[in-house]
Amino acid sequence: MIQLIVFLPLLAAIVAGFGNRAIGNVPAKIVTTAALFASCLLSWPIFLGFMAGTSSATVEPLLNFIQSGDMNVAWSLRVDALTAVMLVVVTSVSALVHLYSWGYMDEDPDQPRFFAYLSLFTFAMLMLVTANNLVQMFFGWEGVGLASYLLIGFWFRKPSASAAAIKAFVVNRVGDLGFMLGIFGTFLVFGTVSIPEILAAAPGMAGSTIGFLGYRFDTMTVLCLLLFVGAMGKSAQLGLHTWLPDAMEGPTPVSALIHAATMVTAGVFMVCRLSPMFEMSPVALTVVTSVGAATCLFAATCGLVQTDIKRVIAYSTCSQLGYMFFAAGVGAYGAAMFHLFTHAFFKALLFLGAGSVIHAMHHEQDMRYYGGLRKKIPVTFWGMMAGTLAITGVGIPGIFGNTAFGFAGFHSKDAIIEASWAAGQPGVWFVGVLVALLTSFYSWRVMFLTFWGKPRWAASEHIQHALHDAHGHDDHAHDAHHVDDHHANPAKAEDAGHAPHDHHDAVHAPAEGDGGYHPHESPLPMLIPLIVLSIGAVLAGFVFHGYFIEPSAGEEFWKGALAFREHLMHEMHGVPLIIKLSATIAMLLGLLTAWYAYIKNPSFPGKVIEQFGVLYDFLLHKWYFDELYDLIFVRPAFAIGRFLWHRGDEKTINRFGPDGSAWLVQVGARVAGRFQTGYLYTYAFVMLIGLTAAVTWAIGLY
């Protein structure tokens, strides 16, 4: 069964990719979508089997991959509780994204290629989560990197899309270098790349040291930190996060699949898979906690001021990944995976809902040109409402003997916040609560700007284009090479990842009015995934929380698939009342602030921006990370490249190499050409001189 789950997407990708236009759009979509739904239907029984306690960890061997000296890499598929969780996350979201793309990409001329890339990505992700050794995990790791490059740059004729794809690829190479060094070091220390053997031997390495960069360090700390660098790149943690917001240049279904539920969670999965190693290094866990908490706060502050609906959700993803990492850092690996699980449903829902809004608004992504859409696109509205209630953590805490009940994020995010307090990390707990407030504010800001208030559509250039289009707004082709999820106006630099808007843009809202435009609800293939994901956003937390984080049930469910701290889970449930209520209080404060700023007193945000202009610019420019990296890395790299190009290649290598040799041949040819006059007496004279010289030389010898 596991072989079918993993290889059906690969087979579908081959058929759609190589068949391409020869088989046509519909057959390519049918093959890829059917394969993903088949994988999904086969994955859920495995997950439910671990929930029921009837399944146990298995390894399905496929073939011997590498045998070189002491290194023996067998290609095999591991299935345990951790794998089962990832199987349902990856296949469920991917299947729904495939279906959603039937409607969203309906007018695209390259649909077979798009669906082939989606299926190829899914195969690579499944290889990653079923890996039984680090080399196979690295194969999947690089596979999802390649597929994400292809998907982000799907509309490669659009310069901003190509630039975003290259940026994602390059930044991830930095993280992958750390991951490779970690794999090399792990093999050096343990003599194997088999994950079960490494984890079994890890406790024996506690307290040992290893030479690195000329010094001796704790072995497990060095290995775990190198591996974590890889996780930072793939999961867009602070320092290696800059690629994620720009990756929104890809089609919206790509954002939902890659940047919500799958690839960006690979780092969290890797840390949890190798959690017995990280347990041997308190220093590494402290670094994981600190980076996760810093990322959580950083991304949430950036999300406060974005006006592009997809970029708000992108920064939200980055922030929620920070939650997962600091949960793992404090030892709550079950809570980290629980938030990964619930986050897949509500974040994919929010991305796909945003795509539905963009579809209705003729590619407009700027929320300042929305408003009043609640009754125009009701299914999309209620879907995004479910996602917002989930991500903000709306629920009823279990403080009066009642069973806690709430939306998905309420159970998973609150568990992380409580676990950080129980683990003796009050600073991390404070960051978690503060970010819960910020998350609530920017999430409800999206809802209020998009669905409430009066329409502000007339000021949108995209809407004006639709109104003047000869085909009207009914011809909703998502031009693969010009616009989709992207402002056509180059003056709006935010869409290319540069400084978005000045104070005037932010303070003075666009004029109200619909301009005669009539938004329309998305087609059924786009609405069905929204409805299904809404069910997950509502129920996933309440239904599954016991298996992930309850002390006894969690231990029985995970069965050693990760380092489950049962005592921490006990302590988490016994935290003080104010700690249990802190996340809910923060959520309510964020909701009330957003309501006041965007419903009750819409002039309030402009006054705040005028008062705190420096802070606003700082957040609007994403803490100036892009500008700083451009100054430190990009410009010097280009300067070195130009120097080596002009001075090294052209003026040195070419001058004294091929160009110099060619010059010598030309000069020699011209000199020799002077003797080629075509006159017989000239040739006779030269022959006479030669003969005289030869005779003179011969006489001289004797």
UniProtKB/TrEMBL annotation:
Q: Which UniProt keywords are listed?
A: Membrane, Transmembrane, Transmembrane helix
The transmembrane segments are 34-59, 79-102, 114-131, 138-157, 177-201, 213-233, 253-271, 283-306, 312-333, 340-361, 381-407, 428-447, 526-549, 577-598, 680-700
Gene Ontology CC terms:
endomembrane system; membrane
Q: What is the membrane topology listed in the Swiss-Prot or TrEMBL record?
A: Multi-pass membrane protein
Keyword Ion transport in annotation: no
PANTHER family given in the database record: NADH-UBIQUINONE OXIDOREDUCTASE CHAIN 5 (PTHR42829)
| NCBIfam families per UniProt | NDH_I_L, PRK06590.1
In its UniProt entry, what is this protein called? Answer: NADH dehydrogenase subunit L
